[in-house]
Amino acid sequence: MTSRTTIPLIDERRAARSPSTALTLSPLLPLLPATGLLGDQLGRPLHDLRISVTDRCNFRCSYCMPKEVFNKDYPYLPHAALLSFEEITRLAGVFARHGVRKIRLTGGEPLLRKNLEQLVAQLAALQSVDGQPLDLTLTTNGSLLARKAQALRDAGLQRVTVSLDGLDDAVFRSMNDVDFPVRDVLTGIEAAQRAGFGPVKVNMVVKRGTNDQQILPMARHFRGTGVVLRFIEYMDVGATNGWRMDEVMPSSEVVARVNAELPLLPLSPSSLGETAARWGYARPDGTHDTAAGEIGVISSVTQAFCHDCNRARLSTEGQLYLCLFASQGHDLRSLLRSGATDAQLASAIAHIWQGRDDRYSELRASMPADSGTGARRVEMSYIGG
Ligand code: SF4
Known about the structure:
Layout: E1 20-22, E2 48-52, H1 85-97, E3 102-106, H2 116-124, E4 135-140, H3 145-155, E5 159-163, H4 169-176, H5 182-194, E6 201-206, H6 215-222, E7 228-233, H7 251-261, E8 264-266, E9 277-281, E10 294-298, E11 311-314, E12 319-321, E13 329-331, H8 332-337, H9 342-354, H10 360-363, H11 380-383
Parallel strand pairs: 1-13, 2-3, 2-11, 3-4, 4-5, 5-6, 6-7, 7-10
Antiparallel strand pairs: 8-9, 9-10, 11-12, 12-13
Helix pairs in contact: 1-2, 1-9, 2-3, 3-5
The structure holds iron/sulfur cluster.
């Protein structure tokens, strides 16, 4: 990780939506049934599905949706292009028959999608292959959470993750770039806790030189509150955030910084394919102080975790992506709207996943700055983080 990698800030209005494979029901392809266990080329099972329900957001975080590109002239998707709640639920049901057990609703900002609790209620009625309810969760910037938390909980949402990049109001306002106050996000987190969501997670993207001085204030603030704070390495997602390697603070440095004041000890993963490495607050005797809680670090740049990545991503207009850093999607919507049966949808998904060999983060360091393919990575705001 020595070379300084610079990705030029581009203004590709359509960069967000990379080309997709038009899926047709080829008679040449055998109809693959949903068996509840679907493995890719690296033997990774399809387990998690992230569903983006909107390409819009009310924040303009520079590492995800820089204002220069995502401005008033940006061609956001028309409503007719979005999958309806019924289409999303139907597809989610097919994915569940392939072994998906966890669904995360994302965006853009998912709470901007009207009546989202209706979709949550539909998804909450789905079951996994062994008849269990799916693990239904959502990632939000928290701006609308205070208003929506109880309704989402009542509809069947089980967990919520809130993005918050600092406690200092000036730092946070500069990072969300729409002058939104920290106070309102904290109020949203409190509302989520009151609504009874299992441990609320808070994600902080750490950008060296921009908000890394907020690492300790955030740890001090959430320690002992039941909230699990996770620090995310700044990533070269999409093609518009001007990512540079020297603005990445490796998670090892984040852990060292917290540990210097609030001693930590490593904890084992709590689930298969978990993206965060867990660190518990330690008692003076070196045991885990469960009342104080834990933090997590998500290290896509310096400690890639592609080896057990079991996540698929569905864009708000029905494109299936197999990696956060993909540049090609697979158009399930056209199949859906062309009258395909569930068996045909299941078969198409099986063929796609079985062909998957994505492991971008593992290969990042060995890739030339410009892969020369001209392929643009899909924007995170389009498929969710
Ligand atoms: S880079 Fe792609 S394959 Fe690797 S963990 Fe992230 S989403 Fe999965």
